[in-house]
Design goal:
This protein is an alpha/beta fold and 289 residues long. It is built from 13 helices and 10 strands. The chain has one domain: Homocysteine-binding-like domain (TIM Barrel, Alpha-Beta Barrel), CATH 3.20.20. Helix content is 44%, strand content 16%.
């Protein structure tokens, strides 16, 4: 595979879709506190299989099953730090095996709220300092980077403070990546979102910034706030809304990629889907782009 940054400069790349959605389709219950991390523990072959489905559909970048992997939530489930390190590395290995030389691998780095499994990744209301958040993120980022992904996919970052923390945690890591914010987070006002994208774009090794895990209708406003000359990354949900209390999706799915060409025209170089998007959705996107 060529360098992903070179490929991005040449054309938009297609990301994968909802890993958790497809694991549920295989019969896994993701309602527990570990979400898809539980499947990584119990059925790694299914994680590899879902990755392979997305490759077959035309995804050019696979995102690993490490979004909810953290030292604190895994400790509560009886796993020590060395075991978490092994799981983080396994998430990259499984994606690499599924990619089989046909796709790049992006190691998923979820927000602090993801390991809480309480919906706070949509609010950023963590009550933690920038320094504390940076320390919390640093070891996991380094372990994932050491596992040899092509990129880091830093996802659903929900507050300006966490963006600053990620920028600190990336110092010296040496692996390129993107930072994708939560477009639906209450922690950002209009000015704050543009400022956070600028901080994200200035972080070490960052090659794209944007948004994920949001309704497709929010994507144009995100792209309008990209810093000049910075590539965009966008991967919305199906349009349904996550209810953290009931741990279910509400509402109706939209035509997720109806405006994909316009997103590319507005600066998106990495385009895919997040929750509730399937290989069929990605195949249709790949055929268009």
């Amino acid at each position: 595979m060529p360098d992903v940054r070179t490929a991005m400069a040449d054309r938009p790349l297609v990301l994968d879709g909802g890993l958790g959605t497809m694991l549920e389709a295989r019969g896994h219950d993701l309602a527990g506190a570990l979400w898809s991390a539980g499947v990584l523990l119990e059925a790694p072959g299914d994680v590899r299989g879902v990755h392979a489905e997305f490759v077959a559909a035309g995804a050019e970048v696979l995102t690993t099953a490490s979004y909810q992997l953290g030292y604190d939530n895994l400790a509560a489930a009886g796993h020590d730090e060395a075991a978490v390190d092994r799981l983080l590395a396994a998430s990259v290995r499984l994606a690499r095996e599924a990619a089989d030389g046909q796709a790049w691998v992006a190691a998923s780095v979820g927000p602090f709220g993801a390991v809480r499994a309480d919906g706070s990744e949509y609010s950023g209301a963590y009550g933690m300092s920038v320094a504390d958040l940076a320390r919390w993120h640093r070891r996991r980022i380094q372990v994932l980077a050491d596992a040899g992904p092509d990129l880091l996919a830093i996802e659903t970052i929900a507050s300006p403070a966490e963006v600053e923390a990620i920028a600190l945690a990336l110092d010296g890591v040496g692996v390129p990546g993107w930072i994708s914010l939560s477009a639906a987070s209450a922690a950002f006002d209009d000015a704050g979102y543009a400022s956070a994208l600028a901080v994200a774009a200035s972080a070490p090794g960052v090659v794209a910034v944007g948004a994920n895990c949001c309704p497709p209708a929010l994507i144009p406003a995100v792209l309008a706030q990209l810093p000049a000359g910075v590539a965009g990354v966008v991967y919305p949900n199906s349009g349904e809304t996550w209810d953290a209390a009931s741990r279910t999706w509400r509402g109706e799915a939209d035509a997720t990629f109806a405006e994909a060409e316009a997103w590319v025209d507005a600066g998106a170089r990495l385009v895919g889907g997040c929750c509730r998007t399937t290989p069929a959705d990605i195949a249709a996107l790949a055929a268009r782009l």
